[in-house]
Design a protein that fits this description.
alpha/beta, Chitobiase, domain 2, TIM Barrel, Alpha-d-glucuronidase, C-terminal Domain, 3 domains, 8-stranded parallel β-barrel, 20 strands, binds alpha-D-glucopyranuronic acid
Length: 719
């Protein structure tokens, strides 16, 4: 695509990437500025840029990301009749006749309105530095001014303006500073370069093939990747890892002789402030280096990692670092050499440290070959058992990446006790945007409220810090739900999960329903639909409570699983009951649930600090929604709602299925009101959701009726 023809600033399009950034290009991209227009625009349709694009906009500053800002502004103005101008030099402060100024503070004398804005004292005394990614926004004398200290701040500020729409230009507003709460906001792609015989191209992917890899190498259609980077920047994500945590033989080589592929992706993401990370195999010195060992104490192993890492940085100077899944589900790790995970992680951290990189070391370590007869082993305990004793032993550039729950991304779990147990370790919490256990992007399941609960959880009770505070030094990571599907995420409404993840990583205290509302406004701009109020009301009705709806018709009261083994979709109550995976519900004729108490069970409750340790220990105090995670109780056990466990199971399964039907009915009202392709795709998926919910309802209810012999108090049909 050619550069927008609007604007009268200096034409910088001739500058090469190297001139702009000092970073060499991996391979000259055919058209590095092109954005794929065939994929669904998601939350960046041209109409979302109307308020900004209809105005006279001045961009002040230089650098790769400022070029991106100017490109965006230029495109918006070309579409909506405004005017984009650019100043970059100290002697060129154009400031006449502008409605909006986006300026880097160190780019020479600021245009007059921006200089005035800078001199205005901040309300509430917030004069803390804006940092690398923050920005200041104000409006006075009919000019909206956005200031940043670094180019990324300008980019995030631009997308903030887009979100605000006309509000950004409506009334005077005092200067307000915006900064991300978490430094690294990262997506892990579980993408395989070579198609895996069981997992396919994208492990747990429900949106087609990989956007990065095809036929064993990096794809050439960089426009799609660029469009992705743009979407990520617009919701605040600043890092991705580009390959699966289960590192296969082909993927291992991305670190060495296949590094060009990674460098190429890094080039495409860089203009949007997204850094590339790589999942590596702990056994790389053996697999790739031909060494006899990968032992962290071996000097040749350390030298190998140092050398390989230096090569990576020579090629990709802003490379983010490594992601490692070690001693987990068959991946190699330090246990093979009798070393612990601090030694393993520090080995890679040592190689990365001279270059400023980090290692994301996953805490998802457990015995996946458990004997189901063994009641003493509890998978929920594993991460804490392995990692809590290592607190304080990790190097500063190790980020311990902890799944948010102690098990594995179920629809309901308590918060992992590891998060409170490691005050001297940098922690990142890991979410799963890809809906492995939450409907696989065939069911509507908006996960924002769930993540918000997790981020707001306070392990030491109401006066202590929240999960979001405890992870500020490490960040938030999620498994991406994106593929080469035209809607990006298979289910068009699953785009909202990706958007919400980015927004909550920026501001964990944001109201998830307000974030959803933002997503609705951006994705379905009022001017593009036949009936904006109907669209908004319908999307809220379908999505607001959809996570709880999914919970209602699937595994009850925090017990988890009950899914079909392997694929993890649809009901199979005993599918995992006699398996080696450590995921059991222990239902018998008298009751159901896992006894994780200190008094009579696995002792897992003891991994929490007070007050939760006592709350979870007690079947009377334990929150209903987690009862079966912590306790094995009789079917007649009374919940806080006053209902018995078995009656609750019946009631929620009937109610959840009815809600799925209602969602489908509501959605039908949008026929002819929104883009027919989106409407049709969602309608098809809602048919499947209703079918699957009915199957869940009937299998779960029948199972518990047959086990317990207790009839439904309301006499509904159970098989
Ligand atoms: C789940 C998932 C796997 C994945 C693993 C992980 O168990 O089913 O496909 O590899 O999580 O997080 O590493």
């Amino acid at each position: 695509m050619s550069r927008p023809s609007v604007g009268d600033g200096p034409d910088r399009s001739v500058a090469t990437d190297r001139e702009r950034t000092g970073v060499p290009s991996a391979r000259a991209p055919q058209d590095g500025r092109a954005v794929d227009r065939t994929a669904h625009p998601a939350w960046l349709p041209p109409e979302a840029f109307r308020a900004l694009g209809a105005r006279r906009v001045l961009v002040h500053g230089a650098g790769l990301l400022v070029d991106t800002v100017f490109d965006e502004v230029g495109r918006a103005c070309a579409a909506h009749g405004g005017r984009a101008r650019r100043t970059a030099l100290a002697d060129d402060p154009v400031d006449d006749g502008v409605d909006v100024i986006l300026a880097l503070r160190d780019a020479g004398p600021l245009p007059a309105p921006a200089a005035r804005a800078e001199a205005t004292p901040p309300p509430g005394g917030d004069d803390a530095p804006l940092g690398d990614e923050g920005f200041l926004l104000t409006r006075a004398d009919d000019v909206t001014v956005l200031l940043a200290d670094a180019p990324a701040g300008l980019l995030y500020g631009l997308f903030h303006l887009i979100r605000l729409g006309e509000t950004a230009f409506a009334a005077d507003a005092p200067p307000r500073r915006h900064r991300p709460a978490l430094r690294r906001r990262m997506l892990d792609h579980w993408d395989n370069v070579a198609v895996h015989p069981v997992m396919g191209q994208v492990e747990r992917g429900y949106a087609g093939g990989s956007i990065f890899w095809r036929d064993g190498s990096a794809r050439r259609d960089l426009a799609r990747v660029r469009a992705y980077a743009r979407l990520l920047a617009a919701c605040g994500i600043n890092a991705i890892s580009v390959n699966n945590v289960n590192v296969g033989a082909v993927e291992a080589r991305l670190l060495t002789d296949r590094l060009d592929d990674v460098a190429w992706i890094a080039d495409v993401l860089r203009p949007y402030g997204v850094r590339v990370h790589l999942s590596v195999s702990f056994a790389a010195p053996v697999l790739l280096g031909g060494l006899p060992t990968a032992d962290p104490r071996d000097a040749t192993v350390r030298a190998w990692w140092a050398g390989a890492t230096a090569q990576v940085y020579a090629r990709i100077p802003d490379f983010g670092g490594y992601v490692v899944k070690a001693d987990s589900e068959g991946q190699p790790g330090p246990f093979a050499y009798g070393r612990d995970h601090a030694e393993g992680a520090n080995l890679l951290a040592g190689a990365l440290a001279p270059h400023g990189g980090v290692v994301h070391w996953r805490a998802f370590v457990y015995d996946h070959r458990q004997d189901w007869r063994d009641r003493s082993t509890d998978r929920a305990r594993a991460a804490h058992d392995h990692f809590a004793p290592l607190d304080g032993r990790f190097r500063d550039n190790v980020v311990l990446q902890v799944k948010h729950g102690p098990m594995d991304f179920q629809v309901r779990e308590p918060v992992s006790p590891v998060i409170a147990a490691m005050p001297s370790t940098r922690l990142a919490v890991e979410f799963q945007v890809t809906q492995e256990y939450t409907g696989q992007q065939r069911h509507v399941c908006y996960l924002g409220p769930w993540w918000s609960d997790v981020l707001g959880f306070r392990p030491w009770g109401p006066s202590g810090p929240a999960v979001a505070d405890l992870t500020a030094g490490g960040g938030l990571v999620a498994v991406s739900n994106v593929g080469d599907d035209p809607f990006w995420t298979g289910h068009p409404l699953a785009q909202a999960n990706l958007y919400a993840f980015g927004r909550l990583a920026w501001d964990p205290r944001a109201d998830p329903l307000a974030v959803l509302d933002e997503w609705i406004t951006m994705t379905f701009p009022p001017a593009t639909t036949g009936d904006p109020e109907l669209v908004r009301a319908t999307l809220h009705a379908v999505m607001d409570d959809s996570w709880r709806t999914y919970e209602r018709y699937t595994a009850p009261l925090g017990v988890g699983w009950m899914v079909r083994p392997g694929v993890h979709y649809g009901p199979d109550v005993d599918g995992y009951e006699y398996s080696p995976w450590g995921t059991y519900h222990f239902a018998d004729r008298d009751g159901v649930g896992v006894d994780r108490t200190r008094a009579t069970g696995t002792g897992f409750t003891g991994q929490y600090p007070s007050p939760w340790s006592e709350v979870y220990e007690s079947p009377e105090r334990c929150p209903d929604e987690l009862l079966l995670f912590f306790h094995h109780v009789p079917y007649g056990h009374l919940l806080h709602t006053g209902t018995t466990v078995v009656q609750h199971i019946y009631d929620t399964h009937f109610a959840g299925t009815e809600q799925a039907r209602r969602m489908r009915r509501r959605w039908r009202r949008l026929a002819g009101v929104i883009d027919p392709a989106v409407h049709e795709r969602v309608a098809q998926r809602l048919d499947e959701q209703v079918r699957c919910a009915e199957e869940w309802r009937d299998q779960i209810n029948t199972y518990f009726f047959r086990k317990s012999g207790v009839p439904d108090a309301r006499g509904r049909r159970i098989h």
